[in-house]
Amino acid sequence: MFPQLTLNQRGKVNTCNLVVSHARICCRNLIMLETKRIYQILVFSALTLRCHNIQHAHLKVLLQQSL
After folding, report:
1. What is the DSSP track for the chain?
2. What is the Cα–Cα distance from 67 to 31, expressed in whole angstroms?
3. Cα gap 27→34, rounded to integer Å
4. CB 39 within 8 Å of CB 63
5. 6: left (phi over 0), alpha (psi -120 to 50) or beta
6. CB of 24 within 8 A of CB of 43?
7. pLDDT tens, position by position, for the chain (67 residues)?
8. Is the pTM of this model over 0.85?
9. Of 3, 34, 36, 54, which one's alpha carbon is 20 to 30 angstroms from that of 23?
């Protein structure tokens, strides 16, 4: 699926996708403050994992949709 990436890099991409999926599910049932906290965690996780396919704009849309 990601032939140009090493096994470690593939793991980071998969982990990053799981973080996003988990936040999408959780944000639907949380109040605004909790949603903001998850948004911050999501941004931090994406940056930490250097997940280039997740852009800041997508995170903002995710936050807006969940409120």
Report:
1. --TTS-HHHHHHHHHHHHHHHHHHHHHTTS-HHHHHHHHHHHHHHHHHTT-TTS-HHHHHHHHHHH-
2. 7
3. 8
4. yes
5. beta
6. no
7. 344 444 555 555 555 566 666 666 555 555 455 666 766 776 666 555 554 455 556 666 666 665 5
8. no
9. 3
